[in-house]
């Protein structure tokens, strides 16, 4: 049964990692290089992650600076940023690309908070689905007479504790991101 618990924790940990990546990509008014993690650039015919093609720095709180290692790729990088969903127009001086983050309006902040809540709820649903699958595994073990009924009940309690712990972590991540968005 310990193997089942470890497998369940591993899957739930992946849910938290996925949620964390999603939250990092949400623009909260401050420049964060993680917002560029999902952008890929067409580099000689193959899609290449932007962070593998350029140095990304934060010279000011509301600005990202992208300095390509190969200056000939600057147009492709600019094109990839324009076609992405980050909603910021890059400015290019021939050597570096600058992304200026405008301050968020109150309405936009509220929309972002709703998005954060929605993603947190999706994370909780994913965690509950993992718990359900683990419960089914316990029932199967009981049905195959590999564990006793008491073991099954104890296992269900332990799975519920694990689920509650990971659900609390999702809620903590949600609160932290909401505070980040709402702080000016």
Q: How does this structure look, described?
A:
The chain is 58% helix and 15% strand. With 184 residues, the protein is of the alpha+beta class. The strands form two sheets. The protein has a four-stranded antiparallel sheet, with helices on one face. Strands 1-2 form a two-stranded antiparallel ribbon. The protein is elongated, with a radius of gyration of 22 Å. The termini are far apart.
Features:
single chain; 184 residues; alpha+beta; 4-stranded antiparallel beta sheet; two-stranded antiparallel ribbon; 6 strands; elongated
First-last Cα distance: 48 Å
Count every helix, treating DSSP H or I runs of 4 or more residues as helices. 4
Q: State the total count of DSSP E strands.
A: 6
Helix content: 55-70%
Strand content: 15-25%
Shape: elongated
Structural class: alpha+beta
Q: Which blocks of ≥5 consecutive residues have pLDDT under 50?
A: none
Order of helices and strands: HEEEEHEEHH
Largest sheet: 4 strands, antiparallel
Strand order across the biggest sheet? 3-4-6-5
Report the C-alpha radius of gyration, rounded: 22 Å
* Average pLDDT: 88
Write the layout of secondary structure elements.
Elements: H1 2-25, E1 40-43, E2 46-49, E3 54-60, E4 63-68, H2 74-83, E5 90-92, E6 97-100, H3 106-143, H4 149-182
Antiparallel strand pairs: 1-2, 3-4, 4-6, 5-6
Helix pairs in contact: 1-3, 1-4, 3-4
Short description:
With 184 residues, the chain is α+β, with helices and mostly antiparallel strands.
């Amino acid at each position: 049964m310990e193997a089942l618990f470890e497998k369940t924790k591993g899957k739930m940990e992946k849910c938290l990692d996925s949620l964390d990546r999603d939250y990092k990509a949400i623009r909260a008014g401050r420049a964060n290089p993680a917002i560029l993690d999902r952008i890929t650039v067409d580099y000689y015919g193959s899609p290449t992650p932007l962070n593998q093609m350029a140095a990304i720095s934060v010279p000011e709180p509301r600005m990202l600076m992208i300095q390509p290692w190969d200056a000939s790729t600057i147009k492709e990088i600019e094109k990839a940023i324009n076609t992405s969903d980050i909603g910021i127009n890059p400015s290019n001086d021939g050597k570096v690309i600058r992304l200026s983050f405008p301050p968020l309006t109150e309405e936009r902040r509220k929309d972002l908070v709703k998005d954060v809540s929605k993603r947190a709820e999706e994370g909780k649903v994913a965690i509950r689905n993992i718990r359900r699958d683990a419960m089914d595994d316990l029932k199967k073990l009981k049905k195959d007479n590999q564990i006793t009924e008491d073991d099954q009940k104890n296992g269900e309690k332990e799975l519920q504790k694990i689920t509650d712990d990971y659900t609390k972590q999702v809620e903590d991540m949600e609160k932290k991101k909401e505070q980040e968005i709402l702080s000016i």
